[in-house]
Amino acid sequence: MTATTATDTTPGEAPPGADPTALHAPVIEWFHHNARDLPWRRPEAGAWGVMVSEFMLQQTPVNRVLPVYEEWLKRWPRPADLAAEPAGEAVRAWGRLGYPRRALRLHGAAAAIAERHGGEVPTDHHQLLALPGVGEYTAAAVASFAYRQRHAVLDTNVRRVFARAVTGTEYPPNATTAAERKLARLLLPEEPATAARWAAATMELGALLCTARNPDCGRCPILEQCAWRRAGAPAHQGPPRRGQTYVGTDRQVRGKLLAVLREAPAPVSRMLLDRVWHDPEQRSRALGGLLSDGLVERLPDGRYRLPGTG
After folding, report:
1. Whole-angstrom Cα distance, residue 146 to residue 41?
2. Can you tell me the distance from the alpha carbon of 132 to that of 51, in angstroms, rounded to the nearest whole number?
3. How confident is the model at residue 2 (pLDDT cuts 50, 70, 90)?
4. How far apart are CA 227 and CA 231, in angstroms?
5. Helix or strand or coil: residue 268?
6. Among this protein's residues, is 54 annotated catalytic?
């Protein structure tokens, strides 16, 4: 890798003269010795276990996912097991992972797998992409991690590693760009199994060492090749990074309403839901959003329940 500055390249682009293969061996070797023993990485997890983990890990840290993942796979070890139950049971089991529409999407994907693919998670990338709730990232991740195929897997951690190591910028753009996708393909090893290993290794490097705050550069296997460090670790110059707020937002109110419904053995009255939040306008807006998203159903008698549940 050649030295660069944060202004030498467009964000997401490799600097001229960069050798993408120079990063492969040290990162994959580091991963071999430092990868966490996570249940979805074990052979027995299978493609379904990988898919469940990818849905759960979107915007949610590993330590929160682990207990829910374990219980989920005990209850629904195959897609058909989940598809056979109401969507509301998926929402209930999702617990407090957040962004519960992911539970509905995972239930929809399981139903499609059971109906279209004989209950087996498809190996073909295009068939994965055609499943409900499966986008480009999830399709690539399942094909790569479950089936050892050659796909560029771009999550937030990987994008941050590439931004620093290759383009010399502290953070990637707020939204994934065409330049980042092009760079990810450029960096992808040719051999499929190695490419799958590279995808997992770069993700782990971003999660454990090349973190958003306080990166542990001293332990990084590519410190000497890192364009950002060679340029003097320049501060972020792009648009302000988006922060996520929760307290006092509609999202918090939605969570409180769903908590009541998850814990209730039967449909609940509006009066019971009204107790969870002091602002009636915000409470009504949050409940309306849950109804629109299909996370809650209103019965003819005016009571509310998780979709399809008793």
Report:
1. 9
2. 13
3. very low
4. 6
5. strand
6. yes
Query: Confidence class of residue 62 from pLDDT cuts 50, 70 and 90?
Result: very high
Q: In 101-209, at which residue ranges do the beta strands (DSSP E only) sit?
A: none
Which contacts of 35-38 are long-range, i.e. CB under 8 A and separated by 24 or more positions? 35/200, 35/201, 35/204, 36/62, 36/204, 36/208, 38/62, 38/66
Only one residue has tokens 């590693």, namely 161
The rounded distance, in Å, linking the Cα atoms of 2 and 105 is: 43
The 10s digit of each residue's pLDDT in 98-155 is 999 999 999 999 999 999 999 999 999 999 999 999 999 999 999 999 999 999 999 9
Angle at 76 between CA 74 and CA 77, to 5 degrees: 70
Please name the amino acid found at residue 116: R
Q: Please state the pTM of the whole predicted model.
A: 0.90
How far, in Å, CA of 222 to CA of 179, rounded?
A: 22
CB 296 within 8 A of CB 305: yes
Catalytic residue chosen out of the listed positions 54, 180, 204, 297: 54
Pairwise CA distance, residues 295 & 198, whole Å: 37
* CA pair distance 3, 225, nearest whole angstrom: 8
pLDDT in tens, 192-238: 999 999 999 999 999 999 999 999 999 999 999 999 999 999 998 87
pLDDT for residue 12: 59
One-character DSSP codes across 60-118: S-HHHHHHHHHHHHHH-SSHHHHHTS-HHHHHHHHTTSS-THHHHHHHHHHHHHHHHST
Q: Is 26 exposed, middle or buried (0-12, 13-18, 19+ CB in 10 A)?
A: middle
